[in-house]
Amino acid sequence: MTKLILIRHGQSVANLEERFAGIYDAPLTALGEKQAELSAAYVAEHYEVSRVYASDLKRAFFTGKAVADKCGVEILPDERFREISAGAWEGLTFAEIVEGYAADFELFMKDVGRARATDGESVAEVGVRVMDALRELGERHTGETVVIATHATPIRAVQTLVTHGDLACMKDVPWVSNASVSVLAYENGRFTFELISHDAHLAELITRLPDSIE
Predict the structure, then answer these.
(1) Active site residue 83
(2) Which residue in 18, 37, 46, 83 is the catalytic one?
(3) Is 9 a catalytic residue?
(4) Are 130 and 156 a contacting pair, CB within 8 Å?
(5) Which end of the chain is more exposed for a tag (fewer CB within 10 A), N or C?
(6) Which of 42, 22, 127 has the alpha carbon at shortest distance from 85?
(7) Mind listing the pLDDT tens digit for each residue in 108-140?
């Protein structure tokens, strides 16, 4: 069996400004850096990690590096764990997206699993690339525990596919919080969640996506 620990990045500048970052390379805030350190300490205390993989975007890579440094292991960037490529929405505030791309964003809000960012990637495409990457790591690291530092949409898509089998159900699956820890077991080609969006170790520093996209 392989354990795959999915960590969402800490609070980013885009989160703070209520922007849709996508692959826009927003850094962590000071709070986000603290969240990353707290999650790194939690993982190091509870798991024996052999490797860390991370989206190459700053907010996720810094989060992953905090874990790698704490656990004394290597970190490798992997573009397959990037956030959704948001096309015309990149870097815009949610209010600006509503104003300029109302129909597409309404679908994202009401039926996210069937949505596509305007001129960008679909949520279904995100699900395929991330699940394929996780299967590869699951096979490569049999008997090990690895960490993947990634983003909200990839984790929500994976959670939906593993627990429901159909992205049509994604609208009923909540976003995970910043720097939260989710744990997947992979064995004989099957995934099972052992933990989802654990953030108790962050205490009063817990942050989540704004109500405008809940």
Answers:
(1) yes
(2) 83
(3) yes
(4) no
(5) C
(6) 22
(7) 999 999 999 999 999 999 999 999 999 999 999
